[in-house]
Structure formats: C-alpha cells, structure tokens
Please model this.
Amino acid sequence: MATFLHRLGLGSFRHRWAVTIVWLLVFVGTGVGAVTLSGTMATSFSIPGQESTTALDLIDERFGGGSGGTAQVVVAAPDGAKVSDPAVAAEITAYVQKLAALPGVESASNPLDPQRPTVAPDQSAAYSTVTYGTPAPEITVEQREALLDAVAEARDGGLNTEVSGEASMEPGSDIGGPAEAVGVVVALIVLAITYGSLVAAGMNLLTAIVGVGIGALGITTLSGFVDLQSTTPILAIMLGLAVGIDYTLFIVTRYRHELLHGRDPENATAMAVGTAGSAVVTAGITVVIALAGLAVAGIPFLTEMGIAAAATIVVAVLIAITLVPAVLGFMGRRALPRRLRAAGAVDPEEQGRPFYRAWANTVTRFRTLSLLAAVIVLGVVSIPFFSMQTTLIQPAQAGSTQERAQAIIAERFGPGFSGPLVVLVDGANATARATAIATSFQALDGVEFASLSRARPDDTAAMVAVIASSAPDSQETKDLVHALRSTVDDAGDDEIYVTGQTAISVDVAEKLDQALPRYLILVVGLALVLLILVFRSLLVPVTGVLGFLLTIGSALGATTAVFQWGWLNALVNTETEAPLLSLAPIIVIGILFGLAMDYQVFLVSRMHEAHAHGASPRDAVVTGFKQAAPVVIAAATIMFAVFAGFVPEGNDTIKPIAFALAVGILFDAIIVRMIAVPAALSLMGRAAWWLPSWLSWLPTLDVEGAALERTVPPATVSEMPETAPVPSSQDSTHR
Model:
C-alpha cells in the first residue's frame, strides 16, 4: 500500500493542475445537483414492518389524511372562569374557526363539541387538535409561522393559549450557527499554531471544506431520489469536516518533516503520502467500516445515515491522498514557516520535543499508577451510562410555547394527554370490536381512559384513543404499550394494532437496543482484526479495544449525566432533563470507534516503527510518543472544537450526539491514548509486539511505509528521518 500511495502522491504532485481542476469540477457539479435535484428530508423516525408503522399506513389508507401533521392548541380559562362559560366558550369557538382557516390546515376540532369534547375535568382548559393535509415534515415554513402567529395574536388579545405538537415544531438549526463558526475558527488557530504558518493552516482548512462540501452537497442531491433523514447531512458535515482537517494535518505534517530533512518538494510529497497517507487510508477504512456497519441494526434510516456519512469519509480520504499533494505542489517550501525555509534548517522535532518526551517518560516510569488512574477516572465517569434511558420523544425547548402547552396539558388533563396511543381495529364489524377493546383497555393499570374515537361509515375500520396516566417518555407508558399488545394477542385478534408516536418510539428504541450488542461485537471484532493486521501483534489490539470501550462508557456516561440528569446542563444551553434520543448511542459508538482507531493507528504506528528499527520497548514508546503525540493532540483539539461547535445552538437531535462526540474525543485523546496506552505498552514490554507463529501468514499492511526502503532509490532512503532511533540519556536515566 505504501508503494502505491507513494506513486499516487508523486503523480498528483506532477499533475497538480489536472487533479485540482477535476476536484473543483466535482465540487461545482455536486453544488449544481444540490440546487436542482434536492428533495425534502424526513424529520420523523420509523421502521418498516413494525406494528406501529404498519398501523399508520393502514390508518392513512382506511381514513385518508391519517399521516397529516397535527398540533394541539391549548386554551386555558382565566382565573376563576371555566371554558364552558358563555363568553369564554364563544371566544374559543371563534378561535377554532380561525385555526381551521389557516393555510394548509385540513381541520381543527372544536373542544366544546358535546360528541367529542376535549375539556379538562375541572373545565379550566381545553385543546383543539389542528390537522394538516400533509405530514409534518412537508408543512411549509409559512404554514407553520401562520399557526404560531395565530397563537401569539390570540394570546395578545387576552386568550391564554399555547400550541404543541409536531406541526408546531420549527426545525432546529441544521448547522451549529455562530458556535459552529467559532469551532472552525478554533480549528484554524490550532492549525496555525501547529504549522507556524497561516498559509499551511489555510490550505489544510480549505481542502477539508472542499471534501466535506462535496460530501454534503452529494447527499443533498441524493435526497431528490431517496428518502433521507434531515439529520443525515449534518452528521456527514460534522464528521467529514473533523476527519478532513485531521487527515490533511497528518500528511502535511509529514511533508514538512521530509522537507526539513533535505528532500525537495516533489520527493517530500511522495514520501508523505506513502507513509502518513498509508495511516490515513487505514484510519479512514476503520471509520467507513464502522459507519457502514450501522446496517447491522436492520433499520433503514440508520443504514442510510451510516452509508451517507461513510461516503463523506471516503471523499475526505481521497482528498487527502490526491488533492492535498497536488496543492502541496503549488505551495512548495511555503508550507514551512519563513524561518525554516532556508536550506539546512533544523526540524523542531530534532530538538527533542521536551514537553512530550517528559510526558512520555513520566507515564512510562510510573506506568502502573498512570494506567490505574486513567482506568479509575474513566470508570467513574462511565457510571451514569448504566442508568441511560432512550426515547424518540424529545422534550420541547425550555421557555417555548410548546413547553408551556405541554405543561398546561399535563397539569389540567394529565401527563398522558400529550402523547395519546392509537389502537386501530381493521376488518368487518370494526365498531363493535373497537368498543369492546376500549372497555377491556379501560381496566388496565396505567390507562387514564380509552374510548372509540373514529370509525368508517362502512364499519370496516375503527380507532380507539388510549390515554396513559403517565408521561409519554416514561417507563410506565412503555410498559403500557406492551400491556395493550398483550391484551390484543391474548384475544387472538391479528387485525388490531397499537400505534401512535409513543408506540413508534417504543418500537424503534427496542429495535435499537437489540441491535446495539450486535453492533458493538461487530466493531470490536473488526478493531481486533484490523489492528492485528496493522501491528502484527495480539496485545496491542486488545489494548486499543479496551481503551475504546472506556471511551464509549465515559462519553455516554457524561452525556447521560448532562442531558438526562441535568448536571451542568447550562454549559450546553439546555434546561431539559430527558432520556437520550434512541439512535444516539449507536451513532456515537460508530463514529467514536473510527476516531479512536485513528488515534491508535497514528500513535502506535510510530512506536511500532521505532521498535522495528531496533529501539527497546520503552524507548520505542517514548520515541513514537514524542513524534506522534503533538499531531494527535492538535487533531483531537480540532475535532473537539468542530463537534463542540454543534452543541450550544444545535437542534435537539444533534446536540447530545455532538456533546458525546466532543467529550469522547477529549477522553480518548488525552486519557486513553496519551496515558493509558503508553503505560500499558510500557508494562507489557516486548510482549506487546509478539505475534504467535501460527498467525505469521497474515498479510502485512505496512502502515509505516517500510516497503519504501526497498523501492525508493537508496540516496532518498538514507534521508528518511528517524529510521534508527537512539535512546537518549534521559531515557536511560528513567529506564
């Protein structure tokens, strides 16, 4: 692989104009496609074949418009009054008529209708269900604003009214807004400090933006042909920008290193792509496998998200090994700070990187204490993970009209009214069967009430509304969904379905919970196989996988403490305390797996390279650490900034995921890769690099580029840096 990438880097350098033009044409082409071919993206989650999803399709078929978006407009009577008072009732009736005339609205129920009243038991409040003719994702901005304006006008006119429901929800910002811009600025600052050159930093950021732009625009174009979730592009942008910056950073850092060791720009570029590029390709493959592996869950929308994000990673890798060397051809020695451009300049690495050498010496000298401290800290942070709860029902934003509406409904009607369950009876004599079902449900614990809500004139389908006595996202309501289905199953009637947003949430959460162990086994198994191939060792892969498990536990533990328990939630600009989104854990595991393996490959490959050239086990750890750690720290800082930028102003779906990724990167880079891994490898000594003879047949991936020593002319090979690391006196002192 190293030899092939060496030739690819050389070809990209020599044909830099052609390579650059091709990538720019691809960028423009995806932009044109996004503008002309993009479609509407979904904002709701469901799984085809599940009972709740099947029921929704049948409701839409039997009743028509069953899939239209809805909103609950709540009206609270003035203090001391009732909604049934003539003056208040007249005002509510007129208001409902106005709601029914809003753009896109198909109907607005009258809460005072004697046949189907929706009035609180003490008559202190009532609510109207506003139904649109299109699903919630297809409701236009103008239609949604018209509803919110009508509520605000009524409130200003003295009517205490609020609105909730999916039709009233304004989509959260798909990008992080100003905070995300700050993340990009932080990335630029870190790159400028790392390179000591604004030109090199700007090039790094620009090539990453081209890559993530192609990926995101391509996904947007694809949305015109297949149904995609609205979170798919933002996940691709978030991950693609982070790895795009990092992959370019690794190659440019090696390029600058080669320049300072006497190579001309052409040979330096080829060597950088052949060595660092090999690590980039290997790391990229791990991320792609982890994301594509989301298909193991068997959930279409999750598979689409994983494949789309994986495609963005592929673009980032291709950019790093083709466009980056082409741009380096234009930059030449300007990739170096001005003070280092003169021939014979000394590479700062040759000065020993005293901070990182001291860090490595300290960790390897007190290796047992360092390893125990790292494990204990991450273990404590992981404790909340064991009480993590998930749901698809996300709380309304604090202080919003949706939150106030839900509070009124929960207080005046009951917590279950904001998430009613729907039971569909399909088939002949549906009304009588539905009435009987409602009676049997009424006797179940946890049911506030159950009653027939709608029936077809030909009596071939009917619906029962079931109101739980607990909140939609509570465990009690989840248990009630199972109790309802058990009652139906015991009756032996396969034409009765339990659905509604709460039931859908239960189905998706359980499907994800079942898939999570399989997925974890998959990615852990892939990590072991890949790392065994890369390092030709058994203990190094085990160390990497155990470190990854600590990273996952601590990232999800911290996220649970902040978003579910409410600890320090002001730091992430949220006041809600609720279960995490159902798909968050599996997405976080997939992304963090790839990124953790990135750091493992970049860090340990330099240690492996030093050991292969004769360094003792401890000296190999120290030498590899001081070479790779600065770049890994810079890469982690950039990724942290990019992910953290989506937290303060991101939408409710992205915010917890971005937070988990940000803290996961922090824990993995600082505690696992900078402390636990060097300490563990130092403890294992030579055994860390042992491979049983019965595995000697495994292919060699050559991430370090050893094959280049045989294929590159000897005069060039002799200039390769640090081929035979010599233990320093400081290493010998602490050995």
